[in-house]
Amino acid sequence: MIERFARAVDDRTDDLVSLTVDLIRFPTINPPGEAYTPCAEYVARYLSRLGFQTKLIRGEGTPGDTDRYPRTNVVARLEGKGPGPTVHFNSHIDVVEAGAGWTTDPFGGEVRDGKVFGRGACDMKGGLAASIIAVEAFLAVRPDFLGAIEISGTVDEESGGFGGVAYLAREGYFSKPRVDHVIIPEPLNKDRICLGHRGVWWAEIETKGRIAHGSMPFLGDSAVRHMGAVLDAFEKELFPALDRKQTEMPVVPEGARRSTMNINSIHGGQTEDFFPGLPSPTVPDSCRMVIDRRFLLEEHIDEVKGEVSSILERLKRERPRFDYGMRDLMEVLPTMTDRHAPVVQAVAGGIREIFGHDPEYVISPGTYDQKHIARIGHLHDCIAYGPGILDLAHQPDEWVGIEDMVQSANVMAIGLDALFGAAG
């Protein structure tokens, strides 16, 4: 049976490459959400030819959804010859901006040296293509399987997934009894299984001041200087404390096995839209900072927030005229699928067959759409597995290896066979 899957995938290598190239050529840049609908329509047409029933679903009312940039998702389902489990492959179709530094057209889908180049090649249009070819190969070998297969192309993962998987999860697309097992073909290396991710808390901190003439700052109160005090406290107290926290979760890379916090942005005083003119002389009465705190399975969200709020409260007590506000932007708890879960065991078996060794089990340093499947859909038999090297994601000259996609498609086809069992 393994050899039959391998032949079926190999016979479709040209289709795999062509499909990846076609997907890359849709510039599905997020933000703002370009080309979502034509890309979703293309996937729907492709899967319809395989016998799938397809549906385009707009994430109406979600962040960024407008008539100009509709949050268009595609969900496709193929029923087997009788009742059984449902296996769902979920890939996001959105990509980040191309940025500078490319030596090839980021949306050209150039094929050379055994690689497909382009924005999203690795993250994760190569994974979407590999999962589709894996399903094609599986159907060629086992057309009489019992159960159902679903494939989705969803949007906005790069900006939180709220118009994609989160919206669909609220509509019941990622819950039992509709779905039993989910594989997300994110690029975490072809012989790794990603069981989940660290937690994340995004928050905006605003320090408050009093506006005054810039030549007489003593008549005002600088919010920027207050924010400087916050930064100083973070450097001296919070960052060293976070560095001492370590986890038993197998997070990669190793540096992410600690608690971390990134300062995403700081904006204080006047905006810079006065260019090409000159600014006016004022004391800034507001300064805002956005923090990105990544936390571990061993930490509680209340503790995470409390570490920041306790510093701010102390400054309020000790620093004259210090005042602040803080609001949550996003919070997601850490998640980790059990290594003995059915989907983990099925894909692990495929990795052993194709690569001849046990998989490496890892945790992602950042979140991906598994967070919504777990917290909204309450479905925990979910992993990330797919082709591609994580370090290449979002980089100039992003690429995915053709052989990597072929091997990953083999693993996914074998995993499907295991999840559906011997029946059918």
The CATH topology annotation of the largest domain reads as: Aminopeptidase
Summarize the biggest pleated sheet: 6 strands, mixed
Distance between the termini: 13 Å
What fraction strand?
Answer: 15-25%
Low-confidence runs of at least 5 consecutive residues: none
Structure class: alpha/beta
Rg estimate, integer Å: 24 Å
Q: Quick check: average pLDDT? A: 96
- Counted up, domains total 2
Along the chain, the helix and strand elements come as: HHHEEEEEHEHEEEHEEHEEHEHEEH
* Lateral arrangement of strands in the main beta sheet: 1-2-6-3-7-15
Q: What is the level-2 CATH architecture name of the largest domain?
A: 3-Layer(aba) Sandwich
User: Can you tell me the CATH superfamily of the largest domain?
Assistant: Zn peptidases
- Annotation, overall tally of beta strands: 16
Brief sketch in words of this structure:
With 424 residues, this protein is of the alpha/beta class.
Structure, explained:
By secondary structure, the chain is an alpha/beta fold. The chain folds into 2 domains: 2-197 and 334-420, Zn peptidases (Aminopeptidase), CATH 3.40.630.10; 200-332, Alpha-Beta Plaits (2-Layer Sandwich). Helices cover 33% and strands 22% of the residues. The protein has 10 helices and 16 strands. The chain has helices at 2-10, 13-24, 36-49, 121-141, 165-170, 223-243, 301-318, 342-355, 370-375, 402-420; strands spanning 53-58, 72-79, 86-92, 111-112, 115-117, 148-154, 181-184, 192-197, 199-208, 260-268, 286-295, 324-332, 335-336, 360-364, 382-384, 399-401. The protein has a 6-stranded mixed sheet. Strands 10-11-9-12 form a 4-stranded antiparallel sheet, covered by helices on one side. α8 packs across α10. The chain is elongated. The model has no long low-confidence stretch (mean pLDDT 96).
